[in-house]
Amino acid sequence: YYYLPYMYCMDPEMLDPTYWEGKVAMVGASLPGLMDLRNTPVQETFAGVEIHANVMNSILQNQFVKKTSPTKNFNTILFLTILTGLIISLPKKTLYTIPVPIVGMIAWWAFTLFQFFNHLIMWETVRPMLSIFGTYGGVFLYNFFGAEKDKRFLKDTFSTYISPTLIDQMFDAKEEPQLGGEEGYHTAFFTDIQSFSAFSEKLSATDLVELLNDYLTEMTDILLENKGTLDKYIGDAIVAFYGAPAPVNDHEYYACRTAVLMQKGLSEMRDRWRGEGDRWPEIVHNMQNRIGINTGQMVTGNMGSTMRMNYTMMGDTVNLAARLESSAKQYGIYIQVANESYIACKDKFVWRDLDFVRVMGKTEPAQVYELVAITGEETDKEKTFLKAYHEALALYRNQEWDKAKEAFKAADELEDMFAGRKTNPSRVYIPRCDHWKESPPGDDWDGVWTLTSK
């Protein structure tokens, strides 16, 4: 509406009388001092005369503000309640739904304003917004105290030895761990510190505990980040497995990746300890760990007594993994992997064909490999000595003992004999060449070597 001073209406010289043709004029006051300002739902101070103008305009145009019916209001509230419930039930984590009620209430408020100013339809504003907020609050509380309770139980029970990702997977798939043992195809993982007994001679009990806690924390973090399940600590040793209690695709790959990352992590820890000067003795600066990995059928589950149980693993696969970890020292290597694990992820890592060996306590021979690096991350030095070593191994398996011996000697010169490493696979094969030369194995030789110590 246009506001004109009253004098314009009375003086034809100020405003041409033809201006009023086809128009209706309402006379009134708009000054605050004249006490004709009113409060309305759309504006706090509204000239009283304009209220009359709106009434007259509605009559002339036959356009009136229409309120929605109680039935329509009820159906709207019901629709918004169901829609809000469906939307906030989609995200896996309840906290992700916090923006939903805020956006919903703002959207409804904007919709009611649009309907009023453009179509003169007056929708209910408060109760639909309360229904959105109330629905969110109800579902949130249900998830937190109901559905989330089960997830919190799993996390409280298993978070010390299962990665959070696997716990979420178990919850989403409704896979609760079963009491007792369950057989499955998994990967066993063993690691411990090389010559750890010597550490206790060089360190006080307090320093030894501090060092061990630092080491175990770093190694366990790597294990859990790569979907491993921590079985137990045995002194400095870590026992773990992959694929239970929740399934893990490519569990062989994750076990091998864990081993490589543990070696990298330990290397960084050694650099940090050296940087602390005389805080730690030289034996700590040169700390190494050995790892054994094997894949196969095993039993996992809660085992023990009715008073005290432990989620662990058992089986021949587990025993071989433990033997591979301990026998790695005889070859001077730090990650020894059985053939079953190797086959599943051979293209993703760089390997050394180590041996076809019968370990202590086993009657069946096993083909074993040294895990050197992730594919593409091997150094030029590793490429060089692996090429020389495999050429020597081919001569050895062809029973060309003299040529194999000289080739292993050449490969030995290329090996990295860092502090604490007492031997390497090439050195192991040199006396074997002499042994087989003196006592030839025959044409039907299967290449098996029997270890006489763990």
Automatic annotation (TrEMBL):
Q: Which UniProt keywords apply?
A: Membrane, Transmembrane, Transmembrane helix
Q: What is the protein name given in its UniProt record?
A: Guanylate cyclase domain-containing protein
Q: Name one GO biological process term.
A: cAMP biosynthetic process
SMART domains, alphabetized: CYCc (SM00044)
The residues covered by the Guanylate cyclase domain are 187-325
Q: Answer yes or no on keyword Cell membrane.
A: no
Spans through the membrane: 74-91, 98-117, 129-145
Among CDD domains, the record links this protein to: CHD
Q: Which InterPro entries does the UniProt entry name for this protein?
A: A/G_cyclase, Adenylyl/Guanylyl_Cyclase_3/4, CHASE2, Nucleotide_cyclase
Tell me which PANTHER family the record gives: ADENYLATE CYCLASE, TERMINAL-DIFFERENTIATION SPECIFIC, ADENYLATE CYCLASE, TERMINAL-DIFFERENTIATION SPECIFIC-RELATED
